[in-house]
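Reviewer has doubts. Consider these tokens.
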Amino acid sequence: MMIAASVAGVFTDSIGQLSGAISEQGFDVSSDVRTDVEVISDSGSDAIYNSTSATITLYVKNTGTERLAAEPGELDVLVNGQFVTDYTVTRADGDGDWQPGTVVRLDIQRSLALDEDHRVQLTVNGDQEVFEFRT
């Protein structure tokens, strides 16, 4: 009887942990599905890269339904396949969260070779966007 009770207790605890993990994963997936961003900068514009300050400037619109934080920790940024941590994110129309339908300005500090093709990859809550341009 004691063995059966202890086995039942272990199963009950395991099922409770599994249920909690599934609920948490469901919330994460829901957030990922509601997140969508689009780079709205013109890839042919001379304003994308400033060689004097070694700055890439992109405008990114929140086209999803998820409210995002307009801060560097919200985005993963890769330039030409290299992870970048030196960047700033500012709301183009003021301060506060990155609401659906609003645009942020992303300034990435990175020296680039001139007269070459370059690629910036942004990842937000699992949503990936790739922007290609030529300096």
Summary: Residues 36-134 form a domain with the Immunoglobulin-like fold (CATH 2.60.40).
